[in-house]
Automatic annotation (TrEMBL), chain A:
Protein name: Iron ABC transporter permease
Chief location of this protein within or outside the cell: membrane
Phylogenetic classification of the source organism: Bacteria, Pseudomonadati, Bacteroidota, Cytophagia, Cytophagales
GO biological process: siderophore-iron import into cell
GO molecular function: transmembrane transporter activity
UniProt source species: Dyadobacter luticola
SUPFAM superfamilies: ABC transporter involved in vitamin B12 uptake, BtuC
Compartments (UniProt record): Cell membrane
From TrEMBL, chain B:
PANTHER family xrefs: HEMIN IMPORT ATP-BINDING PROTEIN HMUV (PTHR42794:SF1)
Protein name, entry field: Heme ABC transporter ATP-binding protein
Keyword DNA damage: no
InterPro entries: AAA+_ATPase (IPR003593), ABC_transporter-like_ATP-bd (IPR003439), ABC_transporter-like_CS (IPR017871), P-loop_NTPase (IPR027417)
One Gene Ontology term of the molecular function aspect: ATP binding
Keywords: ATP-binding, Nucleotide-binding, Translocase, Transport
Chain's role: Part of the ABC transporter complex HmuTUV involved in hemin import. Responsible for energy coupling to the transport system.
Residue ranges occupied by any ABC transporter domain in the UniProt entry: 2-239
Pfam family, one: ABC_tran
Species this chain originates from: Dyadobacter luticola
Tagged with keyword Transmembrane: no
Organismal lineage: Bacteria, Pseudomonadati, Bacteroidota, Cytophagia, Cytophagales
């Protein structure tokens, strides 16, 4: 074998084309998860206090698009669908995708399977600023309202998410060598600090404020409107469109920071890109829906176990299945204790934990 | 192709490397030898542009190494580091394909996949192609990494291969094959700079040997000039004997046989 001379790659015969293909599950995965997502969306918009059948759903959509001229579906169902259900499902899809993609890319960046968006301060920062608004609303709310309208809390929460992440990032540059481990540790430190201030404010809050704070911390898609969907959509879209381009660099990072650098990865710029994209998506999501835990952590694990660790499949798959998981969780959250609503954050963690343990167990079983 | 000029590296008043100069020509195999902590890995890290020298300069193809962009360097030289821990279940093929990443944008071309196959064959692990990297033994993993580095410079004219202890964990046969492979590459115009622990292998395969001691260049030159009984004693603190035997093509370095004393207890 060794004695054979090294030659340039010989011209390949067309027959060997097939044999040389890189086994990739990307296409298969996109089909499976795409169909699953469409199914979940259809299921979610149909179910609720006023149930819509699939046939009625088709007529509602088709008549709006002008495919059929007249429909027998009651006006009320059409309104529920267009004004209440659809924006809410759209919001669930967007937020789920943002949480999934941020979790997948941050786990890659930190080379750590327990990383998700909470680690770089997005969530805690947004919470702190949102609670700040809830606490100070008596005095300054009107001023803020003029600035950002009814979405003042969302606006401030997004600013809080961005500022806290920036603080974590800058601190990691000052405190350490700029490696991702320092970034991770700074994230943990700032999270604890921000958490303490949040706790202090919770301690000072009165009963009414406490209720708002709790509600915010547990997350809910109840406030979904087309306006909030349109506000979140561009941020999530940028995150979903550009993150897959970083998958090659994230794959190389698996080899270690220095090996990745020797293969042309500029760690500093990769770190900035991942953090900015993740913060945009998750910051916007947290701003409109509060903190929704566990999705960003667990979804990448599901994809990794099922479709392999390549970041291209992982990132796209995490966006799709994040959307699926959140759509389903939101459907349950608004139906299980109807006519009231269970905060979605409770559901994602409650259902996520046993599932997560199961995945860990599966992984161990596979290794043996 | 690569010239180090009075290179030094200091961290917080501790000098790890001082005043090291040498010049690598195309087709040369350089072995860096020295005791633990002599600065071998530090030197490799500077040659690979991971760390910038605190004094002196390194030129690569007549241009300062600092002026290269990481992406351009990745298309000219490959680096194999000492530690290669991967916990995610990538397949061997995927890992070796990472060596081709600098050469394609989104999807690997047919050519890239063909190079991966050839490199897998070259290091004798074609049958491991679809195995999960974490399930391999240490020596097998190291060979996958060698294949990955090989794939990176496969098509490069006068490419440079920087290896930090490339044969760690490999068995006798594969150590031999790896060095043969490196030798073969040099005949094709590649240059290889490797940290080598086994002095016999350095003696057998290297064109030039750089011996480091306490961060200084202690000796430099052909293997016969550098790997002498006197220099090895000075650099490693161990008395050795260099034996020439008619049946061996190369001289053999062996530690001075000392009877194991029974008085230790």
């Amino acid at each position: 074998m060794i004695s054979e001379t090294i030659r340039k790659v010989p011209a390949m015969q067309p027959t060997s084309q097939e044999r040389l293909a890189l086994p990739s599950s990307l296409g298969r995965m996109v089909w499976i998860l795409g169909i699953l997502l469409l199914g979940c969306i259809a299921f979610s918009v149909c179910i609720g206090a006023l149930s819509i059948s699939l046939k009625e759903l088709w007529e509602i959509v088709a008549s709006q698009l002008g495919i059929i001229q007249k429909t027998n579906v009651e006006e009320q169902k059409s309104i529920v669908f267009w004004v209440i259900r659809l924006p809410r499902v759209c919001l669930a899809v967007l937020i789920g995708a943002a949480l999934g993609i941020a979790g997948a890319s941050l786990q890659g960046l930190f080379r750590n399977p327990i990383a998700d968006a909470t680690l770089i301060g997005v969530t805690s920062g947004a919470s702190l600023f949102a609670i700040f608004v809830l606490m100070l609303n008596v005095k300054y709310f009107s001023m803020l309202n003029e600035l950002a309208g009814v979405y003042s809390i969302s606006f401030v929460a997004f600013v809080g998410a961005a500022l806290t992440t920036l603080l974590v990032y800058q601190l990691s540059k000052i405190a350490g060598d700029g490696g991702v481990t320092t970034l991770l540790l700074c994230g943990i430190a700032i999270n604890a600090f921000v958490g303490a201030i949040t706790g202090l404010m919770t301690y000072l809050a009165d009963d009414q404020q406490l209720r708002s704070i709790t509600f915010w911390n547990l997350g809910s898609l109840g406030g979904a409107t087309w306006t909030s969907v349109l506000a979140v959509a561009p941020f999530v879209a940028i995150s979903v469109l550009f993150m897959p381009y970083l998958s090659k660099a994230l794959n190389l990072l698996v080899l270690g920071e220095s090996q990745a650098a020797s293969l042309g990865v500029n760690l500093k710029s990769l770190k900035q890109k991942v953090i900015i994209l993740a913060t945009m998506g998750v910051g916007a999501s947290v701003a409109v829906a509060g903190t929704i835990g566990f999705v960003g952590l667990i979804v990448p694990h599901i994809i990794r176990t099922t479709f392999g660790p390549n970041h291209k499949t992982l990132i796209i798959g995490s966006a799709l299945s994040g959307a699926i998981v959140l759509t389903l969780a939101d459907t349950i959250s608004r139906t299980i204790v109807a006519p009231s609503e269970l905060p979605i954050g409770i559901l994602t963690s409650l259902l996520g934990t046993p599932f997560f343990i199961y995945i860990l167990w599966e992984q161990k079983r596979k290794r043996l | 192709m690569m010239e180090a000029h009075k290179v030094g590296y200091r961290v917080r008043n501790r000098t790890l490397l001082d005043n090291v100069s040498f010049s690598v020509q195309p087709g040369e195999f350089w072995a860096i030898v020295g005791a633990n902590g002599a600065g071998k890995s530090t030197l490799i890290k500077m040659l690979s542009a991971e760390n910038a020298p605190s004094s002196g300069s390194i030129a690569f193809f007549d241009q300062d190494l600092k002026k290269y962009r990481l992406k351009d360097l990745a298309r000219k030289r490959a680096v194999l580091a000492q530690q290669n821990v991967i916990s995610l279940s990538f397949t061997v093929q995927e890992i070796v394909l990472m060596g081709r990443y600098p050469f394609y944008e989104s999807e690997p071309a047919h050519r890239d996949l063909a190079i991966v196959d050839i490199c897998l064959k070259k290091v004798g692990i074609a049958d491991l192609k679809n195995r999960m990297y974490p399930t391999l033994s240490g020596g097998e993993q190291q060979r996958v990494q060698v294949a990955r580095a090989l794939a990176q410079i496969w098509e490069v004219e006068n490419g440079l291969l920087l290896l930090d202890e490339p044969t760690t964990g490999m068995d006798l046969l594969h150590q031999f094959q790896t060095f043969q492979l490196a030798r073969e590459l040099t005949t094709r115009g590649f240059s290889v700079v490797a940290v080598v622990h086994d002095l016999n292998q350095a003696l057998q395969y290297a064109d030039k040997v750089l011996m480091l001691k306490d961060g200084q260049c202690y000796a430099i030159g052909s293997p016969e000039e550098v790997l002498t009984e006197r220099f090895i004693k000075a650099a490693f603190g161990l008395s050795v004997q260099i034996i020439r035997h008619d049946s061996a093509a190369f001289p053999i370095i062996v530690p001075h046989a000392m009877p194991v004393r029974e008085t230790i207890s």
